[in-house]
Amino acid sequence: MYLRKAKNHFDEYLDLYKSYNSYDSMGEFYYNEGDMENALKYYKIAIEMYHFSASANSMVRKINE
Fold this sequence. Notes:
The protein is 82% helix and 0% strand. The chain is an all-alpha fold. The termini are far apart.
C-alpha cells in the first residue's frame, strides 16, 4: 500500500514538474525497489537535464558496476 502511494506521488511530481529533481527522485524510487532498468532510465533523463549532477552520475556508475 505504501509503495503504491509513494509511486503515485512521484508520478504526480513528474506530471507537475518536469525537472532534474523529479527524474532523479523517480530514479531513486526505482533503485530502492531493485528495478535497476527503470532507475537507470530516470537517472539518465536527470543527467540530460543537468549534466553535472553528482547524485545521478554517481548512481549510474554504481548501477553499472
